[in-house]
Amino acid sequence: LRTSDPPEQILLNERQRLQLAQIAMRVRLPPRTVIYRESSTAHSVFAVADGVVKCFRELRSGKRVVGAFLFANDIFGLAENGRYTNCAQAITSVTLYRLPLPQLTVLLKHDGDMQFQFLAKVTHELRQAQRRTVVISRRDAVGRLAMFIGLMSERAAGELDDRSVVPLPMTRSDIGDYLGLSLESVSRAATALEKRGTIRFEGRHTARILDPAGFARLVAAV
Amino acid sequence: LRTSDPPEQILLNERQRLQLAQIAMRVRLPPRTVIYRESSTAHSVFAVADGVVKCFRELRSGKRVVGAFLFANDIFGLAENGRYTNCAQAITSVTLYRLPLPQLTVLLKHDGDMQFQFLAKVTHELRQAQRRTVVISRRDAVGRLAMFIGLMSERAAGELDDRSVVPLPMTRSDIGDYLGLSLESVSRAATALEKRGTIRFEGRHTARILDPAGFARLVAAV
DNA sequence: CGCCCAATTGAGGATGTTCAAACGGGGTGG
DNA sequence: CCACCCCGTTTGAACATCCTCAATTGGGCG
Predict the structure, then answer these.
(1) Does any strand D atom come closer than 7 Å to the Cβ of A184?
(2) pLDDT in tens, B96-125
(3) What's this model's pTM, rounded to 2 decimal places?
(4) Which of A139, A214, B35, B157 has CB atoms 3.0–4.6 Å from B88's, for a disulfide?
(5) Is the CB of A173 under 7 A from strand D?
């Protein structure tokens, strides 16, 4: 199966959009809202219309593992045996489409094309997860952070005119939980990148790539 | 969407099996056979009938990242923009079903139920990838190896009568590439587990859990 | 029987983590 | 309008762990 290119774009016709709209509920949530908890019974799948969501698991040690950050047009909330396998929380204020499972299931089974788009979406999520494991395979914190910023840059490419500006809506702690680093290491890696003159942080949630060539070298040094 | 339980089992009726069989090619491959390479054009999706396959990526540094080990009833070979995103190689001698993409696509779009099963499979792969990231989030090599053996034990639960025996068909190097550890660290972790009396290795490719309670504690200490 | 590759074991060096303290900015309340 | 407070962030130092390099052992297969 090949994902649609660009994979973020849902390609549905008018009838399909209408059918989806009929079962979808649009919800607006403020930052930090917990959308669902791990192990709770899964009633819906979600699609991000706007804003940023994180999916994570709480470990008994108190450590948290962020599995993914989700942006506009991403889907999340896939369950296993009727229960969510992780926790989802809004990072910014978000707008979501809530798709009740029973109705979505019927719709998908009935409409092969729509389900195919859905399949492409899930495949995309799988791809993202694999990309993350490549990032984590790096030993050095600076390299990991650079690759992370690279991922975020790629993602934001479509919606910003200035490619050198990279929005980082999440906290250092979230980044650490995603990269498998302590938040201190993330912070140190960030200052290291600044001291090299590779990037500059403008506020906590924006990075500017000052030396694209050096940055690319760093990212590619896997 | 909920995965079928058990998620490994494809639930198809007779007609669907026949349709799949019509487009599938059964192939037997000896160990170490490269099934496809990264970036090569994707013509087929594969399903494992028997044996073990690894999916991995080669990094420029020479390091390898194993993204997944695949066993009977697993699928692999999902492409992105028509190209494989990783390399697949047989670990043992394997039997595969090769499903040519054009025909599979038509079949899936046409048969909503079958596609739904396929979707469940992909979701399962996604789940596995997420499970792996939790394993890697652990700092200590011994804990990572223990969790890995736990994963392999779970997987083998259905096909072996003795739950304490865990087959590990892959090499230490493969395990290291999966766990983000050097093969030396894997080896040291293995001997550490033996010295604790938690497990014992019988040959290179079999582990026996001697102290299930202690083992479970170790695995749960995440 | 001997070769070859996988696995083991050891020592030293590099990197991240932890614990602890100080800083900074944004928002709230006086 | 300003001061204060809170929380995310930064920085430092000691410690733990894994990695790298290197030599050795062991098992399987020809």
Answers:
(1) yes
(2) 999 999 999 999 999 999 999 999 999 999
(3) 0.92
(4) B35
(5) yes
